[in-house]
Amino acid sequence: MHINNVLEYIFAKKTGVKLLRWLVLDDTERSGRELAKFAGISAMQAHINLQELREEGLVSVRSIGNAMVYKIKEDHFLMKNILKELFKAEKELFDKLKAEYIDKAVKKAECVILFGSVFEKTEKGNSDLDLFVLCRSEADKKVIEKEFSDVGINFLVETGNSLSPLILTEYEYKKAVKEKKGIIANIKGGKVLKGKLP
Predict the structure, then answer these.
(1) Long-range contact list for 162-167, CB < 8 A, 24+ apart?
(2) Fewest beta carbons less than 10 Å away: which of 105, 122, 170, 174?
(3) What pTM did the predictor assign?
(4) Domains of the chain by range and CATH?
């Protein structure tokens, strides 16, 4: 393990971070091919990155039949003091943002759905967080718009992203469905955060 600036070595490549994330969060011995598949990288990239992680002492390897299987070393200093907590916090990031900002704004909502680039995991650093919010009445819609206006400023300051809610009453939603508006398919394919669609 590098003692000086070790994170520069283990986080040097995007493919390495993808692989390391999977190793840290998964508690199972896996072959290089399995790890490549789960991490969404090529077998060659997995092989190179696994060798680098072995050099840092982070990964154990043993042979089972014709396959080499790899596992993160749970007792490694970096694992115990940095990596486990870091990747756990990353995994919980959206839930924390939801609790801190979105839940406060949608108390009067019947249904809330995450869609767009964040849901699709194709977002950029400054992408909007697209939300569909369904409410019963125009009065509820006004309340929700005000809530999003209030929390949206803090969300932008603290994350660099904008909250982009599409707020519709049940009447407006049913009309959009009837008119077969394109965005409805995106909404229906998103992740339900609260309630359900009519």
Answers:
(1) 162/128, 162/129, 163/101, 163/102, 163/105, 163/128, 163/129, 163/131, 164/116, 164/128, 164/129, 164/130, 164/131, 165/105, 165/131, 165/132, 165/133, 166/130, 166/131, 166/132, 166/133, 167/133, 167/135, 167/141
(2) 122
(3) 0.82
(4) 6-91 (1.10.10.10), 93-195 (3.30.460.10)
How far is the CA of 134 from the CAs of 4, 14, 138, in angstroms? 52, 37, 11
Q: Tell me if residue 157 falls in helix, strand or coil.
A: helix
As a whole number of angstroms, the distance between CA 63 and CA 4 comes to 32
- Rg of the chain in Å (alpha carbons): 22
Side-chain-side CA neighbours of 23 within 13 Å: the count stands at 28
